[in-house]
Amino acid sequence: MTEDRNIGDIREMEVRLAELERLADELGSVQEEEMVESLDRAVGLLGEINNSIEVGLRSASDGERELGEVLGSMDFGPFDEALEELERQERNPGERGS
User: Fold this and answer.
1) In angstroms, rounded to a whole number, what is the distance separating the alpha carbons of residues 64 and 31?
2) What is the pTM of this model?
3) Distance CA 35, CA 39 (A)
4) How many CB atoms are closer than 10 A to CB 45?
5) How much is the CA Rg of the chain, to the nearest whole Å?
6) Whether the predicted pLDDT of 48 surpasses 70
C-alpha cells in the first residue's frame, strides 16, 4: 500500500512539475497584468513540490529509524558464531568444527 501511495505522490509531483514548466514557457508571452498571477501560481507550485519532498524525506527517515529498531532488537549471535567458524575453517582447511 505504501508503494501505491509513493507512485501516487510521484504522479502528483509530475503533474505539478509539468504545470510549472508550462507556466515558465508562457512567461515570455504573458501580459504584464497576468504576470503576477502566473508568478504567484509558480511560487505556489514550488511550495507544494517542496512540501511533498519534505514529507517523503520524513517518511524515509521514519522507515530508517524503524528498521534500525528492528535490527537492533535482533540477536545475530548464532549467525556471527557460524560466520566465525566458516572463516576459521577457511584459514585452516584441515580443521573441523567442535
Assistant:
1) 49
2) 0.56
3) 6
4) 19
5) 27
6) yes
The one-letter amino acid at 33: E
Torsion-angle region of residue 73: left (phi > 0), alpha (psi -120 to 50) or beta?
alpha
Higher pLDDT, 67 or 1: 67
Q: How far apart are CA 59 and CA 22, in angstroms?
A: 30
Cα first-last separation, the chain: 48
**Confidence band for 96, pLDDT divided at 50, 70 and 90:** low
36: cell is 503576477
Answer for the pair 46, 23: CB distance below 8 angstroms, yes or no.
no
Q: Are 82 and 98 in contact (CB under 8 A)?
A: no
Q: How confident is the model at residue 98 (pLDDT cuts 50, 70, 90)?
A: low
pLDDT at 77 over 90: no
